[in-house]
Amino acid sequence: MIQRIQSVYLLLASLAGFGQFGLPYLRTTSDNPASALPALNDQVFNPFDNPGLLGLSVLSGLISFVAIFIFKNRALQGRMTGGALLCSVLLAVLLSFSTYQILSSMPPGGSVQYQAGLALPTLSLLLQWLAGKSIKKDEALVRSVDRLR
């Protein structure tokens, strides 16, 4: 199960999906004028500040985690990985849009620091894509061995 490379990729993608709850996307200080923005009123911008980001983060991480245990049915595992990949793409687009909105409505003198959480949706997307490629490669190998029998 976990010794297959796609399972490792899916586990890392799941960790990247759930890691967004621990690592903020943007951070500011309390004396900064940017903390007056609704998304930054607690000095951090994370998935809890947007219901879409919250839902897509949970869905992407959860689907990736569940897909690890469907190793006996590679076709279903591939479809689930594709669904998680779609969630990660939507998450990256929504995060980019939300970050753009925050930066465009920045008050004069306000600034934010980019945090490591911004890279996690892209990392999750990359790992899910690699898992999908490995699942297809594994399925092709099994089919070629079945032809030889």
Structure description:
This protein is mainly alpha-helical. Helices cover 62% and strands 4% of the residues. The protein contains 4 helices and 3 strands. Helix 1 (5-19) packs antiparallel against helix 2 and helix 3 (74-104) runs antiparallel to helix 4. The longest helix has 31 residues, at 74-104. The chain is elongated and about 70 Å long.
Topology:
Blueprint: H1 5-19, E1 26-27, E2 44-45, H2 51-68, H3 74-104, E3 113-114, H4 120-148
Antiparallel strand pairs: 1-2, 1-3
Helix pairs in contact: 1-2, 1-4, 2-3, 3-4
Which descriptors apply to this entry?
elongated, 62% helix, 3-stranded antiparallel sheet, mainly alpha, 149 residues
Give the count of helical stretches: 4
Distance between the termini: 25 Å
Low-confidence stretches: none
Q: Helix and strand succession?
A: HEEHHEH
Strand order of the largest sheet: 2-1-3
Give the DSSP E fraction (strand runs of 2 or more residues).
under 5%
Overall 3D geometry?
Answer: elongated
Radius of gyration: 19 Å
> Helix share of residues?
55-70%
Kindly give the count of domains: 1
The biggest sheet, with number of strands, parallel, antiparallel or mixed sense and barrel status, is: 3 strands, antiparallel
Structural class: mainly alpha
The average pLDDT is 90
- What is the strand tally? 3
Question: How would you concisely characterize the structure shown here?
Answer:
This protein is mainly alpha-helical and 149 residues long.
